[in-house]
Amino acid sequence: MTSDKSWTTIRRRGSSNEFWNGLQHFLQMAKPFINDRGFIKCPCRHCLNNASHQLEDLESHIFRNGFMFRYNQWIHHGEPATANAGTTVAGPSGGIHERDKMFDVLDDIISEDADEDAVGGPSSNEQYDDLFAALRSELYPGVSSFSSLNFLVKLMHLKVLNKWTNKSFDELLKLLKLAFPKIDLVESHYEAKKLMTKMGLGYSSIHVCKNDCALFWKENSLKDTCPVCSESRWKLQSGKRSGKNVPHKVLRYFPVGPRLKRLFATSKTAKLMRWHSTGKSKDNDVMRHPVDGKSWKEFDKRHPQFAGDVRNVRLGLAADGFNPFGNMSLSYSMWPVVLTTYNLPPWICMKAEYLMLSLLIPGPQSPGKDMDVFLRPLIDESKELWVHGLDTRDAAYENGVFRMRAALLWTVNDFPARSSLSGWSGQGYRACPTCNEDTPSMRVIGKTAYFGHRRFLPTNHHWRSNLQFDGRTERKRPPHKFRTTDILEQLRRVKTGIPRKYPNYGGVKQKRGDDELNWRKKSIFYELPCWADIELKHNLDVMHIEKNVCDSLLGTLLADPHKSKDTNNARCDLAKLGIRQELHLFEDGVS
Question: CA 236, CA 243: separation in Å to the nearest integer?
């Protein structure tokens, strides 16, 4: 006979006689199974049957931490292994219905807070009371296959997949209420969203100065004016604040830590988070994942303590601008900042469901060199994840809680976005971040051209002596590799400038000194303790490079008038260089 286990899901344990009576029945049932040392496995949400205690300690643990979910067959406490308790859960009216999958979802969420719940006592998880009420509630009288919460989650999922507007969602809820008067469902999208936020993974809204000078965050959160330019935080009408405070800009920040913890909350993804250690290539000449690359291996050598636990997370950052209004004539640039988890195998880590949106930077203008202002919340959390880490439950092997740390390995961007993130300008005579101060460049008609690519060839290569490239032989060696100390010394000479949207900026381009080279700023990434040691800090998005080179090459070969590089200016440049005489322009006597 299966015992009634409905008391194990009660949230308000301190005020529930049902929970207390059920706990006493459980302890009486478990008493004969105490071992010869007087201990028995503890099924509280903190111990998870991994630790053993005396019976009186078992009572206090379960009362304080709650009874662990998914332990519906009490094989360690008196029930035979053939019991069928694992497939049923008590319904809201005392009946038994098939186990709702949302129980497993809430189990994963609540297990993350097991330590905090143990400290906070019986009432520390009251935030989940509404979720459990919706979970134990039937969607409609007599319908046990769907709980109210399960149906709402599926409905919200359809809304996202099919891009329903909030208004259309509200109209659908009204129709369902009208057609099924007894249905247990929220009244509006606002209420649904409010309930869903209790499942975690929300975001923070941070106000931003209209000139991108600073965030109204932390020490500036209560200020009404920008600490840099003294501009008002709020939109003004006729020089006065309107009735409701409306900020000029709002940055959306999605905390990374809770999302990383969620990856370890289920056994499937928790096992995949070890793939970079167990599934990497055994052949040194094959690279199928960043773990096989030189930068990853050098990072592990320099930080052996971090590399010692394969569960520590390696992240990559990508950012680029887009117009959320499609092809409309309105000019607007919004920048999402996305993180990818490289612990996962290559066929998973780039899937949309495993990419984490961390920041949503508002427009209408791109952040440019002021990108660091918007990255501040992410960098601060990244430093915490590197230095202190987070206590995280690993569901893969039920080995309790471990200290998860995370490191940002590099960024992946196109060339203009790389300039905003790295601080090295992608324009001018020294645009190449690899050649640095030794970038070979020259001014041609209407633009700057970069040459000297033959320096990367072997010293005995016959192309080095060919005069058709630029009229000279190439004797230079490849640019030397700049050490971390060299780069930090260059950055030390960079002057801190005011934001480019600052009213006193003047609207003109500020010239850099010769000692600043092409640096516009010292990137905020250098605040990360491990950043200076990373060998490959910024990766270029190959897609953009391949497309642009392919378009130019095919356009020139096919003489496309819009994409060909064989222009009059290009032929005039050849004449100035004194090369390729057969391609020079000449006058044919026709006007």
Answer: 10
Side-chain half-sphere CA neighbours of 49 within 13 A = 13
Q: Which long-range contacts (CB under 8 A, 24 or more apart) does 215-220 make?
A: 215/251, 215/373, 215/374, 215/376, 215/377, 216/247, 217/376, 217/377
Q: How many residues does the chain have?
A: 591
> Which tokens in the block code for residue 561?
């008038």
* Alpha carbon separation from 31 to 180, 469, 477 (Å, rounded): 49, 89, 80
Give yes or no for a contact between 454 and 474, defined as CB atoms under 8 angstroms apart. yes
DSSP at 502: S
Can you list the positions of beta strands (E) in 399-456?
401-404, 406-413, 441-444, 447-450
Asked if residue 156 lies in contact with residue 41, where contact means CB atoms within 8 angstroms, the answer is: no
| Number of C-beta neighbours around residue 6 at 10 A | 17
CB 407, CB 297: distance < 8 Å: no
- Model-wide pTM > 0.85: no
pLDDT in tens, 198-215: 777 788 999 999 988 899
pLDDT at residue 91 is higher than 60: no
Tens-place pLDDT, residues 218-247: 999 999 999 988 888 998 876 666 667 889
- The per-residue pLDDT for range 428-445, each reduced to its tens digit, is 889 998 888 888 888 888
Phi, psi of 112, deg, nearest 5? -65, -30
Token pair listed for 190: 């606002």
Choose among 411, 291, 293, 394: nearest CA to 346.
291
Nearest to 540 by CA among 548, 532, 529: 548
CA dist 132 and 355 (Å) reads 29
Q: How many CB atoms lie within 10 A of CB 19?
A: 23
CA atoms within 13 A on the CB side of 490: 19
